[in-house]
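This week, think about what follows.
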Amino acid sequence: MAVPKRKSSNARSGSRRAHNAIKPMRLEYCPQCSTAVPSHRVCPNCGHYMGRVVVSATE
C-alpha cells in the first residue's frame, strides 16, 4: 500500500481545498411575475417554468 514519504504542508493542502467552499444559491427573476426564483426551478408564485404553466398557482 502506498504511503506518503513526507508530510504535506498546510499550504499544499489549503490550495487543494481552495474550490471546496460552499457557494451561495444563484437567484434569477421569473419573467412572468418578477419573483426571485432559484435557477432551473418552477416559480412558487405563479407556477411557470420555461415559459409555460407547469403547476397551477394556489390562491
Q: What stands out?
A: The mean pLDDT is 89. The longest helix spans residues 10-16. The helical segments are 10-16. The two ends are 63 Å apart (CA to CA).
